[in-house]
Amino acid sequence: xxxxxxxxxxxxxxxxxxxxxxxxxxxxxxxxxxxxxxxxxxxxxxxxxxxxxxxxxxxxxxxxxxxxxxxxxxxxxxxxxxxxxxxxxxxxxxxxxxxxxxxxxxxxxxxxxxxxxxxxxxxxxxxxxxxxxxxxxxxxxxxxxxxxxxxxxxxxxxxxxxxxxxxxxxxxxxxxxxxxxxxxxxxxxxxxxxxxxxxxxxxxxxxxxxxxxxxxxxxxxxxxxxxxxxxxxxxxxxxxxxxxxxxxxxxxxxxxxxxxxxxxxxx
Length: 267
Prior knowledge:
11 strands; elongated
């Protein structure tokens, strides 16, 4: 029996990529949503993704979109994601795959409460390569001393609204964990103006926004004598969609709680 998925922001780039990637025997599309007034409302979810028509229309009503869904997949915005999760009780949805980034601490706390009734897989990036990169960054940070500076560089398309990216923060958290500390303790302020010398042992971030870049991330470890760079480049947005679907297949069999892609991939 196929896993029935409902997609938030179904007319967006990620929503279409998810709908297209789900055209397999393992999945079926149960519904999709867009904001009220969006031109995509009423359009066929499959046709909008460039596939065959499925007879499933995009709706502004979350309850309608998830009425026959097993999994909710959401790559939208923090407020929209939390509003959608609030609307899921009473539906057959067992799991939620959250790729939304940019949550505040208060929003993270609200999200945590939903893990009491849903299996939630939340990640800043659903790419297999990026999650392997995260594990390597943690190992490198654990084995290289505090005299090695750590810098996280990320580049994304001009339309991305949050910075640093969720993936960059994920890599920063992995580096901090490798050093036995929290990112909030080790993260440096953005470099701007007369900042003074770099504090030893800290983790810095640099951000670029340009053109249609899907996603580039690099973790740089630098000592006085050598430089180590661990890098990942996304060549096609479909890698995130396939990763999210892999997570959906795993999550439907899990108990309620919070998980990440390391859990999904057994890392």
